[in-house]
């Protein structure tokens, strides 16, 4: 079946630190990969996506590269801000599975000033 | 464009009571999803509609949960009777046609507390 594994949190960082959240997946078929973010008190928002191998998704200073050889889609940001404090979810969609999203467990990130 | 709308935002009920949630997807989006997000976990799909037909309800506890999308637009999810373990946030999402490259847009969710 399809599954997503991401590093457990919470991850606590100081402002301007480098952030990496690891995400690996297993999928039957060729998945599209996504990072969603959930800010405190808000709904899930798409942060970035990549639909084929070696694609790089980017948004708001965050980046993730679709690595088919390592089945990974790690999220990175070079210099985090307090406003990046949120829960981050890695997810995949496979056409053969009806295009439903399969999510990882989420990683809580707390950025301190 | 307006986003995915859900109501109510919060609901508190006692176990064995019934509850219903409503979702209105983004206009023109054929595919609608209901997810259950238990505290500290990622969302899990309950049911997926394509227009007014069910595509996937394999994870829906059908003895107590039901959902409909009669006119292929808005949808309701019902729990009857509720159990303590149903306490969660219920998320509605939609996308245009269900291609695996399409972005799913999520509503704000309904937080259900079962006492």
Walk me through this protein's architecture:
The complex is a heterodimer of chains A (113) and B (115). Chain A is built from no helices and 12 strands. The mean pLDDT of chain A is 93. Chain A is mostly beta strands and 113 residues long. In chain A, a hairpin with a 7-residue loop joins strand 10 and strand 11 (101-103). In chain A, strands 2, 5, 6, 10, 11 and 12 form a 6-stranded mixed sheet that branches. Chain A has strands at 3-6, 11-14, 19-21, 23-26, 32-38, 44-50, 56-59, 62-65, 75-77, 86-93, 101-103, 107-112. With 115 residues, chain B is an all-beta fold. Chain B is built from no helices and 11 strands. In chain B, strands 2, 4, 5, 6, 9, 10 and 11 form a 7-stranded mixed sheet that branches. A 4-stranded antiparallel sheet of chain B has the order 1-3-8-7, with no helix packed on it. In chain B, a hairpin with a 6-residue loop joins strand 4 and strand 5 (44-50). The mean pLDDT of chain B is 92. The chains are: A mainly beta (113), B mainly beta (115). The interface between A and B is medium-sized, with 25 and 27 residues.
Please state the overall shape of chain A, judged from the principal axes of the Cα atoms. globular
What is the tally of helical segments of chain A?
0
Question: Biggest β-sheet of chain A, characterized?
Answer: 6 strands, mixed
What's the number of extended β-strand segments of chain B?
A: 11
What kind of oligomer do you see?
heterodimer
Could you give the topology of this structure?
The complex is a heterodimer of chains A (113) and B (115).
Chain A: E1 3-6, E2 11-14, E3 19-21, E4 23-26, E5 32-38, E6 44-50, E7 56-59, E8 62-65, E9 75-77, E10 86-93, E11 101-103, E12 107-112
Chain B: E1 5-7, E2 10-13, E3 19-24, E4 31-37, E5 44-50, E6 53-56, E7 65-68, E8 75-79, E9 88-95, E10 105-106, E11 110-114
Parallel strand pairs in B: 2-11
Antiparallel strand pairs in B: 1-3, 3-8, 4-5, 4-9, 5-6, 7-8, 9-10, 9-11
